[in-house]
Amino acid sequence: MIRILSFLLPLVAYFIAEQLWGGLVGLLTSFAITLIVNGIVWLKEGKFYIGDVVSDFLFVLVFGLVDIVVENIAPNAETLATSIALTAILAITVAVGPKRVLGGMIDKVRPGLTKNPYFLSLMRGSFFRMTLWSAFATCLFLFAFLYDDSAASAWIEQYALIVVLVSYLATEILFSRVKKSKFKGVEWVPLMTPDGTVVGGSPRPLVHDGSHWLHPVVHLHVVSSDGKLLLQLRPQTKKIQPGKWDTAVGGHIALGEQLTDALKRETAEEIGLTNFNARLVRKYIWHCDVEDEYVFVFHTSSDGPFNPKNQGEVDELRFWSAQELSDAIGKGILTHNLEKELNEGLIQELQIK
Q1: Which terminus of the chain, N or C, has fewer Cβ atoms within 10 Å?
Q2: By CB neighbour count within 10 A (0-12 exposed, 13-18 middle, 19+ buried), where does 161 fall?
Q3: Which residues contact 48 (CB under 8 A, 6 or more apart)?
Q4: What H or E segment, with its residue span, contains residue 252?
Q5: Beta bridge partners of 317
Q6: pTM of the predicted protein model
């Protein structure tokens, strides 16, 4: 709540001081309030958010300068001045992030909602479109101010705000339906924080487009009775690391799906193994150019038989010895995350021979 006040109180202080003593005093007063509120945050949280202080200063400075300039040039252009100020507020909200401005209020209605990066992306998009419509309204009011005696100006003053508001709402409905149609039938995956907490979900394609939204996956290492490690060859059609040897089983957890259920489903689909017992051996966060994954790594022992259900998922299955795995590291044969696990002692951990 204090973080929100650090954004709103300087604005309120500016309005009050500007009405009493003028724009310059309003700016100085709002700057002082910004320092005081952020000082309270510092005392309470033990951290001084210099980035927040700078953004608060810039916000009030832009708003105040716009207000002072418009008031000096056109004292009677109150509608225009309000529209310019609103556009500036919205633009800065998009720049600093809606969570910074509205996070506390939204989380009071639904706790933890703003931890979901997919929701934040939707909210930022909505604020961006709101900013564009507000800028359009500013252009209309500017026209009305410059051509004050025209019939068009009178119409703008009376109806423009309603038209712009209705247009914004129509735009949001259109964007919502387009997005719903685009992701119709698409699998949703959970989104997580680095500590492993699920904070909502997202359509699966969006976590592979460079957004780096952290999402969970399961890996299963299968070791034969003679101590060799089963690997799968990724098809050339795969978007990520095609044609490389990878963990025997690897796949996404669906939104709302239990970890063990996802492991059983992916194992049956990729290698056709249904009767097995697995243990969790490690967890880690994997970062690459297109995605961030929270990886749950399991281990089981099995000699098969293996019969992949989805032929397009796996080109080949083969057992590898410890020496073969060691020789393949660094030669572009294995996937990057498998090499990471091998370099961190997977061969010794699973007693691969």
Answers
A1: N
A2: middle
A3: 38, 41, 42
A4: strand 249-252
A5: 232
A6: 0.75
